[in-house]
Structure formats: structure tokens, C-alpha cells
Amino acid sequence: MTRRIGIALVATFLVALLVPAAPAVAGGGCHSGPTQGEGDTVEMKDLCFTPSNLTIDPGETVTFVNLDETTHNVGGNLWGFYGDMTRGDTLTATFDEAGTYPYACSYHPGMTGAIIVGDGTGPGSGEAAVVDAFEQAQPSPLVEVRTVTEPSSGTPVAVGWLVGAVIGVGLGFGIASLVRRNARPAA
User: Fold this and answer.
1) What is the pLDDT of residue 25?
2) Is the Cβ–Cβ distance between 131 and 76 less than 8 Å?
3) How far is 105 from 87, CA to CA, in rounded Å?
4) What are the Cα distances from residue 158, in Å, to 150, 154, 164, 165?
5) To 5 degrees, how large is the angle CA 157–CA 90–CA 24?
6) Euclidean distance between the first and final Cα of the chain, in Å?
7) What single-letter DSSP state applies at residue 133?
8) What φ, ψ does residue 120 adopt, rounded to 5°?
9) Is 5 buried (19+), middle (13-18) or exposed (0-12) by CB count in 10 A?
10) Which of 8, 26, 42, 82 is most buried (CB neighbours < 10 A)?
11) Of 92, 82, 50, 85, which is closest to residue 71 (Cα–Cα)?
């Protein structure tokens, strides 16, 4: 009987921990592989930058738009926006010099992409850039970044954790009740 209660408690603990964390382990990035594109917009949807590789001419502007319910950001080497971008938020960046400008969402490992300006060679490749650990990158003089934020209608992350905890505790009590009922001696 004590062993069953122990198993029920461990199961309850694991459910309470894993249910709210499920979205976090989703990772990010395009699971179908990189996508190529042209134009002036990169969409953040399904935990992907689409297209993940965008080719533009020098001097053109790219707009990043978050279409997910999930919070994202767009961080590059000496350019980008490391603040929270919720559903509907946009970020525009103008790339004046040829080069390759990689970027990523710091919340979702694997959610990466690159802006290829011109032939992809030049100072944007990051060869001359040095970023100190634990410091937010400052905008590069080669990239003009402008943030336009629209009101968000997304659900706060805390609500997800609260719902997951309630479900986990409920499942735990249910399992414990079944174990206790089955452990009673027959009359």
C-alpha cells in the first residue's frame, strides 16, 4: 500500500512539473528545414521564421511580424530587438550594406534565420563583430531598427502555468483516490 501511494505521489509531482512545461520543450525552428524567400516580410508562426533565409538588396527594409500566440524576439549580432514581441507586434530593420545577418529567437532554440543582403559578403557577416557575454547587443550603425508595437491580445504565460498546475494537482488527487480505493481490504 505504501509503495502505491509513493508511486501516485511521484506521478502527481511529474505531471505537475511537465504539463506546464510542455510548450517550453517544443523548442522552435522550422522542423521541415530552412525556407528560402524574397520580399520584405519574415513571419514568426508555428515557432518558425518564415522564410528562414530572406534575400534582399542593400538599403531594403525587412518587417518581422509575430503571428504566434507565443512570445518571440529577433536578435542578431549587433542588431535586432531582444524585448518581448507578442502576437501582432512588428519589427522593421533596414540593411544598408551587403552581408549575411543571422538572427534567432532567444526563447526558442532552433528558431533561427538569416537576412542575405546583396551577394551575402561584407561586414554583416559578423567576422568583425565582438559581443561580450551577458550584454544586450546595441544596434549596429549598418542596421536601422525601428519597433512598432501594437496591443497584444495573447494569454499571459502565468495563466498557462496556473492551468497546468491545477490540472496536475487534480490528476494527482484522482490517482491517489484510485490507489486508496483499491488498497482497502475487502469486507
Assistant:
1) 45
2) no
3) 14
4) 21, 12, 10, 11
5) 30
6) 17
7) T
8) 90, -5
9) middle
10) 42
11) 85
Percent of the chain with pLDDT over 90: 16
| Residue whose grid cell is 492551468 | 163
Neighbour-count burial of 145, counting CB atoms closer than 10 A to its CB (0-12 exposed, 13-18 middle, 19+ buried)? middle
The one-letter amino acid code at 70 reads: T
Q: Where are the beta strands (DSSP E) in the chain?
A: 36-38, 41-45, 48-50, 53-56, 60-66, 72-76, 79-85, 90-95, 99-104, 112-117, 143-148
42 bridge partner residues: 64
Cα dihedral 174, 179, 180, 185, rounded to 10, equals: 150
- Number of residues that make up the chain: 187
Question: Over the stretch 42-69, which tens digit does the pLDDT of each residue have?
Answer: 999 988 999 999 999 988 888 899 999 9
Written as nine digits, the cell of 80 is: 535586432
- CB-based contact 111:28 (threshold 8 Å): yes
Task: Find the mean pLDDT for residues 65-90.
Answer: 87
| Cβ atoms of 51 and 113 closer than 8 Å | yes
Q: Which amino acid does the sequence have at 120? A: G
